[in-house]
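Before a colleague's protein record goes any further, I have to sign it off. What it holds is a sequence and that sequence's fold in token form. My question to you is simply how this chain folds and whether the tokens agree. Thanks in advance; the entry in question is below:
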Amino acid sequence: VNEELQKRGIRTWFDEQRMQGTVTEEMQEGIDKAATVVTFITQRYISKVASKNGADNCRREFLYAQRTKPDAMIAVPMHADCSFPGLWSGPVSFTLGQTLVKANVVDGVDSANFGSQMDALASEIRRVKTKNCANRQVSPASTAAAPASPSAATTIATPEQLCGG
């Protein structure tokens, strides 16, 4: 997913590639600099975010994005059992359950369909970025966001010049 978005002109901040130093500081900085935050939805991710484990990085990352960038979050289901937001639970459902899913990267998707799903996701990232810039929710020097690999099922953000950069 990360490579496909980059091919479509979206520069990404992917935690597995950019983590150096303190994990929590790196996650926070990545989200702070993001115009969009793409969340890959799996049942495991939903469970981790819903857990009461304050040390779980998925939970911490999601809750921070929820608090600081609620209008910039994009949900991308990664498995067929997560394709229907009405079946999500916990904070993921609370924050993203009413959003219209623009891209579905479910298991077993064929390559032609995968390409069209990546086009839809790139389009949604650009739409959210433009909306946030127009509403001045993002500073001009800020960055845009995009996702990681399907196996990561985590929230990511990307460094791309926004609002005229």
